[in-house]
Each structure stands twice: as C-alpha cells, then as structure tokens.
Amino acid sequence: MPRYALLTYMEAASLWVKSVVFDERTLTAVPGTMLDGPASETDRLRAWSESDGGTCSGPFYNVPYEEWAAWSRPEDRALHVYRDPRDRLISWVCSMSYSHRTYSIAGAMRTPLCSLDLRDRISVGIVATAPAIWMSRTWLNPPEPRNFFSVSFEALVEHPAREFAAIFESFEWTIPSAVLDDVLARRSFEVFSGARARGETNVMHHYRRGVSGNWKNYFDRELGRLFEENYPRALIDMGYETSETWFETLPEANEVLERDESAIAPTDDVVLADIDHLRRRNEALETGFAAQSRLLAEYQAIAGAIAGSL
Questions:
Q1: Domain residues for 32?
Q2: What share of the chain is helix, strand, coil (3-state, %, to 5)?
Q3: Would you say 85 and 235 are in contact if contact means Cβ atoms under 8 Å apart?
Q4: Which of 37, 50, 69, 210 registers the highest number of CB atoms within 10 A of its CB?
C-alpha cells in the first residue's frame, strides 16, 4: 500500500491542509491508512521512507522534488502545497514578529526583527524566505515526475471542496462528499481563528487573516523591485505574474509602510500587558459566573421548596 506525505512550506496553511486531508473521518474512509507524526527536520523524509504502507505523514517543509524522488517508492503519493511567495513573506514577518511565541527560531529572531521598521523587516524576510522559493521551483517541471499532486494555497481557499476532492482523487481515495463537507465545516478558518471571518485580521493569532493577496497592502514599487531582483522570473514560473516588470504597477509610496504602526504587530511588552489584562478579566468573569451559578442553585432550591409546600 502507498505511503502518503504532505510536502509544503512555512506560512502556507500547512496545519489546516493536514487537518483536512489527514482528518480522522477522512482516514476512516480509507482502510489501512494511519496518521504518523512527521520526521524531525534533520531526518526529513528518510524516517518516513522506512514506514509501513498506509502511513500518512507531514507536513515536511522545504523539500525539493529530488529529495521526494530519492526517498519515495513508485507507489507512494505526495501532496505538494505552495503559496504566493510574497504572501508567505508577509506572513513570515508577522509570525516572527509576534504569533510564533513557542517557535525557537522566532524566539531568536523576534528581538532583532522588532528593532527594525516595517520596510526593513520585509527586506529581511525577502532574504530569509529564499530556501522555500528555491525548493518550490524544483516541483514545477521535474524530470520523470513521480506520483505527486501540486495545488496552491490560493486554489484551496477559493474552491476548497473542489480542490480537496482533487487531492483525494490523486491519492486514489474514495471520500464521500458528505464526509468532506463535514470535515471542511469543522476545519474552517472561522473555527480555527476563533469565529473570525476570512479577511478579518488578528496579527496575534497563528491563523492571522486566511486570504490571499495581502502582500499588496505592504509592498511599494521599491520592495517589489527588490523581490524581483532577488528571484528573477520566480513569480512568472509559479504562475503568479506574467511579466518581470510586475512591480512597476505598484504605487511608489505605501501608506502602511509610511505609517508603520509599530511594524505590523505590537511589541512584546505591549502584548504581554494585554495578555495579563485578558487573564485577569477572564478570572473575574469566571468568579462572577461561579457566583451566579451558586445564586441560581439557591433560587432553584427555594422554588422547589415552595412548590413542595403548595
């Protein structure tokens, strides 16, 4: 039986995709499949390649096609998910600046990154996200392509039912449409983000915005030119642009960059103060709820006694 791997990049909704494709209900519909944790970053696909048939693993990040071809068997299946590098770049800046608080690299990056203004953060991000751009290009037209299905984040967000059905078809899985609809409902952005609608931004949350094209809110012409100079034709090859001079359509000045409201996210001190405030507010609400519950119980007891005496 084939093994199945999710291959993707940081800031490409990898956990959402995994939660849908390898959902318990999904795997129950495919006898013999089982979810196994991804190998460590150093082992990458090697440990996965030694697993039993039916093993579903991932996400594995920044894996070039050649590595997949080297470690997979002819019958194995891969799902390759990519995203507009400019959106991943902005998401990376937000994650490193704030939301990935338990991620070790973010811990090392946060203080120096937060000392920069927004333009410089994005400039750093252009360099920092280079490996993912190079890796993603190896999947475009590989020699002798072996059993993989590539899909963009943008397509998954725009047409989730259609694209996830196509993923299952590439795996040769028969997933009832009712199961897929139920999984998508339980694994939606609105559920994961705490009832926010797509496009409603919370920079303090891992599921920050849930839409594509957000990079346009942060790029000006100079940043666009800098991106194209570092990765010539990458956006054309990936299907996101049709001209190497795409950045010339961007405005010369960007209001967000000029305003630079604390560089996308509040500082750690502000955020920690907000967290402490919310913690104390939550404690007060819990105390009030407990008091109301006791009072209600007393009222119910009194009402029961009165009803018994009538």
A1: 4-259
A2: 55, 10, 35
A3: yes
A4: 210
Compare 247 and 97 and report the one with higher pLDDT: 247
Query: What tokens appear for 240 in the block?
Result: 């996101």
- 8 Å CB contact between 39 and 45: yes
Determine the Cα angle at 14 with ends 8 and 176, to 5°: 105
Lowest mean pLDDT among 89-93, 106-110, 112-116, 148-152: 106-110
Q: Is residue 166 domain-shared with residue 288, that is, in the same domain?
A: no
Helix 118-128, helix 130-137: angle, nearest 10: 40
**Whether residue 154 sits in one domain with residue 300:** no
305 shares a domain with 171: no
Q: Are the C-beta atoms of 146 and 71 separated by less than 8 Å?
A: no
CB-based contacts of 283, cutoff 8 Å, min separation 6: none
Residue with the two structure tokens 């750093």: 124
d(CA 277, CA 288): 17
Cα 93 versus chain centre, distance: 13
Confidence category of residue 212, pLDDT binned at 50, 70, 90 = confident
The pLDDT value given to residue 139: 95
Label residue 48 by pLDDT band (50, 70, 90): confident
Number of folded domains that form the chain: 2
Of 259, 277, 296, which residue is a domain's last?
259
Exposed (0-12), middle (13-18) or buried (19+): which is 64, by Cβ within 10 Å? middle
d(CA 80, CA 54): 18
If asked whether residues 215 and 289 sit together in one domain, one would say no
CA within 13 Å, CB half, 72: 27
Beta bridge partners of 182: none
Q: Do 197 and 278 have their domain in common?
A: no
Q: What is the pLDDT of residue 109?
A: 78
